[in-house]
Design a protein that fits this description.
Layout (H helix, E strand, L loop, with lengths): L2 H26 L31 H7 L5 H17 L1 H19 L8 H29 L2 H12 L10
Length: 169
């Protein structure tokens, strides 16, 4: 091969290699090709199924608290409270997950069990009430660790609404 044909041939092979590498990288992502949803990904513009407050999804208030200008001691104390809550809610989360599975089976199963649906819904309602009460108690403990100015900043963060259509991407 002459020098004139080596460069274009090498450039063509490099371009093909780049395209193959990009395609392989896209397929290696959890969602497969770009635009496809993978496990744990939310649909564009959608929120998916979120756990109840205090149940491990990181409620909005927790992220807002951590964005405050906290002293190291405050940050450590708050993290300790959040970690303890996460551990104490583990059994409740597992029960809620099992109830959702029972509900799915009762509604969509081969032999739907419509008679059991009200009982399952009642149990889910009670579990969500317990989770909300635990979350509010945790918020009160966190609030006690904050200064008056930090609480005011937190209220401002939590009451500001994102622009219509959600936050910018």
């Amino acid at each position: 091969m002459s020098r004139r044909t080596i460069r274009p041939t090498l450039a063509a092979w490099m371009a093909i290699g780049f395209i193959v590498a990009v395609a392989a990288s896209a397929f290696a992502q959890p969602g497969g090709m770009p635009g496809q949803m993978g496990q744990g990904q939310m649909p564009p513009g959608g929120r998916g199924q979120m756990p109840p407050p205090g149940m491990g999804g990181g409620p909005m208030w927790q992220g807002a608290v951590m964005r405050l200008d906290l002293a190291d001691a405050q940050r450590n104390d708050i993290r300790s409270l959040l970690d303890a809550q996460r551990e104490s809610n583990r059994t409740l989360r597992e029960g809620v997950r099992a109830l959702h599975e029972q509900l799915a089976t009762a509604v969509y199963g081969v032999n739907p069990d419509t008679a059991s649906i009200p009982d399952i819904v009642q149990k889910l309602t009670e579990a969500n009430r317990q989770a909300l009460e635990a979350d509010v108690a945790l918020q009160q403990k966190v609030s006690a660790l904050l200064t008056e100015a930090q609480r005011a900043d937190l209220v401002k963060m939590l009451t500001q609404r994102p622009p219509r259509g959600g936050p910018p991407m």
